[in-house]
Amino acid sequence: MRKIASFTVDHLRLESGLYLSRKDEKDGAVVSTFDLRFTAPNREPVMDMPALHTIEHLGATFLRNSSRADEIVYFGPMGCRTGFYLILFGDRSPEDALPLIGEMCSFILSYEGEIPGARPEECGNYLEQNLAMAKYYTARYARMLEETPRLRYPD
């Protein structure tokens, strides 16, 4: 079997950052997949599930209601719990996605109240939420993007 592209990235050298993972085209439509690495794989603790779940709910809510909602294909967590995938319609670069990600982080950091979609009729694990820890991880990620943005995979 062929090794998928994401398994060819050296995760021992990968830092937190915003990376273009791949671009796919079918029938003239292009989608761009981004890795939003909130933590450095294999060197920092992975994100705890309640915080990861809260960021997923808040991030998806923001993105699907943003001025760029028509570009959003998907936002969701990585199985390894080091971050999230963001898939956008179009031939996009990390520089194109960076302002949107910054806005999403600001939304999460300022959010107060009930987590959208966190009711038993809306979510299969609605009780597993942690807004305080979601803000902690998001603040770390937003600071990194402002101070030392990493927008390319290590060579």
UniProtKB/TrEMBL annotation:
UniProt keywords (A-Z) are:
Autoinducer synthesis, Iron, Lyase, Metal-binding, Quorum sensing
Q: Which cofactor does it need?
A: Fe cation
Kindly state which reaction or reactions the protein catalyses: S-(5-deoxy-D-ribos-5-yl)-L-homocysteine = (S)-4,5-dihydroxypentane-2,3-dione + L-homocysteine
SUPFAM superfamilies this protein is in?
LuxS/MPP-like metallohydrolase
Q: Name the enzyme group at the top EC level.
A: lyase
Stored PANTHER family: S-RIBOSYLHOMOCYSTEINE LYASE
Protein name listed in UniProt: S-ribosylhomocysteine lyase
